[in-house]
């Protein structure tokens, strides 16, 4: 029968020391080994002491037919009582036919794997966001997206693990602004969904996406169309278009000329600011905007009116710059420079040009709405032609598949008529309606 070790007290255990070598001057006389002391209470529980004084608990036991030494932690961090309890639990596992060492290794591996998968929303954003921002064509849009996520998403979700984010967490972010700032809330929800989808693909979370709309948030939040309409950018009223354009033509500076060019082509600011000389075909009278600078990520050809060509031809061709409307340093004009040029424009009475529909000062992007109003109210050009001029998607996918052309020559006549209208010239095109004559005809009938 094996000898039962004496059950030591905590004080006795604290006094245990590594044995001195028999002959301190002789390195072979002992001492360079780990000493083991049975502390009793649980068979096989030992205090291990290294030659340098390090102390730890070891349980010597047999698992099946294999002798095992199982570490239970260091002393005195693990007290004598805690070591005895851990030893009893380990021996109970052995009696149940399990190997506590293998179980502990498996648990440690699972924890390490979980820690590697564990990623906070903020950390996920740091990896996901650069790719997303690079895909946005406008610096203004990039800053707006970052500001939205920093203002609304990060304060609530930033420190949370992506795998722990639930539907309730997403609602806590978007619900407060859903009714009042619906467009912002919709974009915010979509970006949260994208971040969590990215995290799922990269193994940081599993299960349904809590920011998904269909069959998920749609069951909780009111439809966007029910709580807020789409708010257009403030535009120049059609009745003010000719006088506004005359005013912008009087202004000097690259930003003013770019603004004039934006109006003539119903283009977006980023498309014009990034325009390079290589995109301009003087012979064909066409400006080709590459897909990378288009919102729809599709190349867009623009037939240029005579007035638009005249603006291009008068722009200085700087040797150190590829831009048609270059900034003073030779780089791209900022969106703020275009906006400032329009903001500085006032009527003869000193007041700004106001959109009569919403009472707000008109902005460069609103010129596209002015063009659309002109095409719809003052011409007989087909709606789809005006939409193509604005680089909007026309028709459904089937219709788009059959319509491979972009009506470039037909649009050329429309853009020249638009230029004639802005310049205050009476157009000869049959597609332009003489509103004075039309009014007189209706009066006679």
TrEMBL record:
Protein name, UniProt field: DUF4102 domain-containing protein
Positions of the Tyr recombinase domain: 231-415
UniProt organism field: Bradyrhizobium uaiense
Family: Belongs to the 'phage' integrase family.
GO molecular function: DNA binding
InterPro entries per UniProt: DNA_brk_join_enz, Integrase-like_cat_sf, Integrase_catalytic, Integrase_DNA-bd_sf, Integrase_DNA_bind_dom, Integrase_recombinase_N, Phage_int_M, Phage_Integrase
UniProt cross-references to SUPFAM superfamilies, sorted A to Z: DNA breaking-rejoining enzymes
Alphabetical list of Pfam families matching this protein: Arm-DNA-bind_3, Phage_int_M, Phage_integrase
Keywords: DNA integration, DNA recombination, DNA-binding
Single biological process term from Gene Ontology: DNA recombination
Matching PROSITE patterns: TYR_RECOMBINASE
């Amino acid at each position: 029968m094996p000898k039962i070790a004496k059950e030591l007290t905590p004080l006795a255990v604290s006094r245990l020391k590594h044995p001195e070598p028999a002959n301190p001057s002789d390195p072979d006389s002992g001492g360079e080994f780990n000493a083991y002391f049975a502390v009793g209470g649980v068979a096989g529980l030992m205090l291990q002491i290294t030659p340098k004084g390090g102390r730890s608990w070891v349980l010597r036991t047999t698992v099946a037919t294999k002798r095992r030494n199982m570490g239970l932690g260091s002393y005195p961090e693990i007290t004598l009582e805690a070591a005895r309890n851990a030893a009893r639990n380990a021996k109970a596992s052995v009696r149940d036919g399990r190997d506590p060492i293998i179980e502990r290794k498996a648990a440690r591996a699972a924890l390490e794997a979980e820690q590697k998968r564990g990623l906070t929303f903020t950390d996920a954003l740091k990896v996901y966001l650069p790719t997303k921002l690079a895909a946005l064509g406008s610096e203004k849009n990039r800053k707006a997206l970052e500001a939205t996520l920093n203002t609304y998403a990060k304060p609530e979700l930033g420190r949370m693990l992506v795998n722990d984010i639930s539907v309730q967490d997403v609602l806590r972010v978007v619900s407060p602004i859903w009714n009042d700032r619906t467009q912002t809330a919709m974009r915010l929800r979509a970006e949260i969904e994208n971040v969590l989808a990215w995290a799922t693909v990269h193994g940081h979370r599993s299960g349904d996406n809590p920011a998904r709309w269909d069959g998920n948030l749609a069951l909780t939040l009111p439809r966007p169309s029910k709580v807020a309409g789409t708010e257009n950018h403030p535009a120049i009223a059609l009745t003010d278009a000719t006088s506004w354009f005359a005013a912008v033509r009087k202004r000097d500076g690259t930003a003013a000329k770019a603004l004039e060019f934006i109006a003539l082509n119903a283009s977006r600011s980023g498309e014009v600011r990034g325009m390079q000389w290589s995109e301009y075909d003087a012979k064909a009278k066409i400006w080709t905007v590459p897909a990378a600078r288009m919102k729809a990520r599709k190349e867009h050809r623009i037939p240029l009116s005579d007035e638009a060509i005249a603006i291009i031809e008068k722009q200085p061709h700087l040797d150190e710059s590829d831009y048609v409307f270059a900034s003073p340093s030779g780089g791209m004009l900022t969106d703020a420079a275009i906006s400032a040029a329009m903001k500085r424009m006032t009527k003869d009475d000193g007041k700004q040009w106001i959109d009569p529909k919403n009472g707000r000062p008109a902005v460069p992007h609103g010129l596209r709405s002015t063009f659309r109003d002109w095409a719809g109210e003052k011409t007989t050009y087909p709606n789809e032609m005006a939409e193509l001029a604005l680089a909007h998607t026309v028709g459904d996918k089937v219709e788009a598949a059959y319509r491979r052309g972009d009506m470039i020559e037909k649009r050329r006549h429309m853009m020249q008529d638009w230029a004639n209208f802005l310049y205050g010239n009476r157009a000869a095109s049959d597609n332009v309606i003489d509103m004075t004559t039309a009014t007189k005809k209706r009066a006679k009938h």
